[in-house]
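dumping the sequnces here before i forget
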Amino acid sequence: MEVFEADIAVVGAGGAGLRAAIAAAETDPALKIALISKVYPMRSHTVAAEGGSAGVVQAHDSLDHHFNDTVGGGDWLCEQDVVEYFVAQCTEEMVQLEHWGCPWSRKPDGHINVRAFGGMKIERTWFAADKTGFHMLHTLFQTSIKYPSIQRFDEFFCVDLVVEDGRVQGVVVIETATGQFTLIKAKSVIIATGGAGRVFRENTNGGIVTGDGMAMAYRHGVPLRDMEFVQYHPTCMPGTGLLFTEACRGEGGLLLNKDGYRYLQDYGLGPAEDKPRNKAMELGPRDRLSQAFWYEQQKGRTIEGPHGSVVHLDLRHLGEAYLRERLPQIYELAEEFLGVDPAKTPIPVRPAVHYTMGGILVDGNCAAPLAGLYAAGECSSVGIHGANRLGSNSLAELCVFGKVAGIEAAKYAKSVAPGNTASLLKQAADAQKQAEQLVIRSDGTERIATLRKEMAQTMEDGCGIYRLGDSMQATCNKIDELKQRFKNVNVEDKSSVWNTDWLLAIELGYQLDVAQAMAYSAINRKESRGAHQRLDGFEARDDINFLKHSQAHYAGDGMPRIDYGEVKITKSQPGTRAYGAAGEKAEQERKQASHV
Amino acid sequence: MVLPARRQNRKESRPAMSEIEKTIPIEVLRYRPEQDTEPVLQTFQVPFTDDMSVLQGLQYIKDYLDGSLSFRWSCRMAICGSCGMMVNGIPSLSCKTFLSDYYPAGLRIEALAHFPIERDLVIVMDDFIEKLESIKPYIIPKTPRALSEGEYLQTPAERDVYEQFSSCINCMLCYAACPQYGLNSKFVGPGIMALLHRYNMDSRDGGAEQRMELVHSEDGVFNCTAVGYCSEVCPKHVDPGNAVNINKTESAKDYFLRFVMPKGSNSGAAK
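..and the predicted 3d for all of it:
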């Protein structure tokens, strides 16, 4: 097997991975950085983020406001010290991207512009039309080319971490083009592989979003934290799940039921007013809006379409010219994929899985409990999203914590000696053998697509917008069964060059482990909080028993062990999470209470 | 690790045919370097609904008919740039090309033209990436600025000058459309010229002079014969042909100023 000697290996080259690689390169140009991605960096799913990225800029805004929005939005399951650091760093990171060329949308005076976003009290979402993730990703990728110490491994698929002497010492990768294995030795490893939304049936995610890094860390004993919190984005394309950004509502879009009624006012988000009001109605948080859709559907007030029930996202009053300027991609998606002109006709939308709030357990330095291992971005749980992420916090997160991970991993890499190549190679050979076994065997009977579809369906059935003990148990059982059947998976393609059938099988293995962590974390949380909502006697938030992070521990063939970690509360005691007029009232009461 | 392909009964797990009314023939150019001496066409009958993309048709083939078919894809919404291929000879993103437009005759899908085929619909894109890396595709600050000084000011009008060219998703359809790139792959080509132009036109950037060396070079803009097909196939309205042509003018002006003007004669003749 070939060996590549790096100081730092970064797995994943989306926003977080690229930001981490750049930070590490700037920390010490002498460090050799291997940047590994199963796709070319600009294909990474950061590319599909649309609406924008948070950073306080307006005079009447404050870091405290951003902090409170984030912690309340996360239903107080956030690490408050980490959130405090996060909100303090966001704006500088946005300015950094600006200096690197990101084409932020501007005000007439040349300063960057910001727009309103769900759950945010003041407008603080930086945007580049409705292609913010695309522009951030291309800016970071193109900027990364400046740094000679970053050596990219484009279209290299990571199959395992190599752990020895209690610390991670490298990764094993397959070159997609040849099927050849390489051991990339590294003194520290940063995982930045994104989320796992593809374990659900209807989702906004690209095909590559399969939880690879989460599963790899998990299999090596690193807990996955808060995995039951999976975000349904309320406005997605029926059938495909493709995203219509929250910026549609930030710019003034309305949500209507079959009677043309702004139904959100019936769910504690009102009153309905002509002008958009922050943290109310259509600018409420995603969990609440998806939950309101679910109730409308139960009441028969949604519209039946070929791909299930829908409501209407109405942008007509914004006019074609404004829509073309602010939401050009949305305009085209509606036209090309649905045959709808959004200036003339409302867009049919329904909720779809969008984001995994949980992930690899890391501290505020992005360090996992396994020495030398760091994680940043959606794959990680650094603790800022809690039970529900606010839109525009994830793009900011991958910059802020990508940078932290890069700096910390560089520090660590300089503090340790390189590992013993011979013994690392032995481990790598085992990983190779295990991966190749999937192809070499000829007695497999289970079809990859069948297992994948059954997994995605059962996750939707049991871990959807609202959850029941029985259906979650059925999902746990089903995932256990699928893990057994996966042992019998059939990889049809037996070749070496661009064998995507093989890689899909490995990804499916990752997905099943992540799905299992989600389902078991969900059934064990006997309360309702943020994106985890139960209807079987646990409808209320239970701070006494569950103001805790869940931690799923891998147990091989068995069910994951779930235990709980403390939540760091610094300056915001858990309170009533309310929006609209009720939210303003609750905020007044909090203020008065704190002045007493 | 090359083993013979093995077929299995694929019928059991397909969606019920009663839910799907129509099928369409999809002809796919296959090339498996370990077993094919040259690319061969293979036809699949694919059940479809009117809202299904060509990409979804390929996914159906991979999931239920032949797991060995290889192609790149990810976002499904025309922004990641992975799924470029030839559809009936036209460079297209398969995620936003729809099967119903080819019914009932069917369609032929091939790897992007002008690139070596790695396998099936996967092309070797090293050349494109090397070109991208070669043009200094990052801000070379005109006036360095500390983060503490905040953002550079840039008016909407200044942003509009380059924004269109920054929208390239690197899908390479324009390269598959470019007859000159087909003849001479040393030509820098439309997409990368658009990217180069994007940075040159950015009010924050001062690196144009360094990048113009490439524009003037024999692999630069003058290879372009102004066919304009690149801009026609661009799925993101980047209009790379326009970027190439603006740079022809720029390059000519530059040439004129550098070599003709100093001699102080004949300036009226150069038009």
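The radius of gyration of chain B is 23 Å.
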